[in-house]
Amino acid sequence: MNVIKPAVVAAAGVMLLAGCGDQTTTSAPAAPGASAAASTSTGNGIADLSAAEILARAEKAVTDAKSFHAAGTAKQDGASMAIDLKESGKNLLATISMSGMKLEILAFDGQSYVKADPKFLESAGVKLPKVSADILAKSWMKPSADDTTFSDMTDGFGLKELLNPSGELTKGDVTQLDGKPAVVLNDSKGAGKIYVATTGEPLPLKATDSDGADITFSEFGAEFPEIKAPAATEIIKLPGKS
User: Does pLDDT of 63 surpass 60?
Assistant: First the structure.
């Protein structure tokens, strides 16, 4: 399960903007709150379906909910990062924190923006005076109309990308995840797992992978007023591609 992909795409995209692989397979981490206790395939009937059908139903349930919150941790090149994503329709707000650095990505009404703090800009090779870097860190960078760098980055945060298996999915047991019954979908490559609720709507509850990614889904159908267009005074327009 390549749940780390959005963070990698985002970081790489900003570094490319500034002018600046394969994942290592390890043993899969145990999902916090999950027990090995089996359950019968009662409830919403999702556990009686095939792995592919369960995944399709989970994706549809999230689409029908229209919004969700995904948060957790992942690793890139051995470094731990925190990922927080709120998505409402095609709009989203994502924050990636890593080694004291923070990167924010916003997509609203078809326009993408990025905000990065001075430490991230420095690591990305952006050479700016301190005052300029501080101003930039408080502002949303808006690309020119001919630059798709940011929109390509936000595409990596789509639900299908977050739940995209690296290999063939197989259905596992029904277990308990933080007190909720869920069926486990196992990825044949990378030891990834997706936990889908077997009561109520068949919503994804958690996704993990062998690199230490552990993402929890919640707040389905919630309103996120913080996902909004930046004020004009908060926007820095970037020059077009030469």
Answer: yes
CA angle at residue 1 from 98 to 208, to 5 degrees?
A: 60
Is the backbone of residue 101 left (phi > 0), alpha (psi -120 to 50) or beta?
A: beta
Among 71-85, 116-130, 146-160, 209-223, the range with the most confident prediction by mean pLDDT is 209-223
Contacts of residue 19, defined as CB under 8 A and 6 or more positions apart, other chains included, come to 125
DSSP 177-197: ETTEEEEEEEESSTT-EEEEE
Domains and CATH numbers, the chain: 5-20+24-237 (2.50.20.10)
H/E element, 13: helix 5-17
Give the strand pairing for 235-237 and 140-142.
parallel
CA distance 208 to 192: 5
Classify residue 159 as exposed, middle or buried by CB count within 10 Å of its CB (0-12, 13-18, 19+).
middle
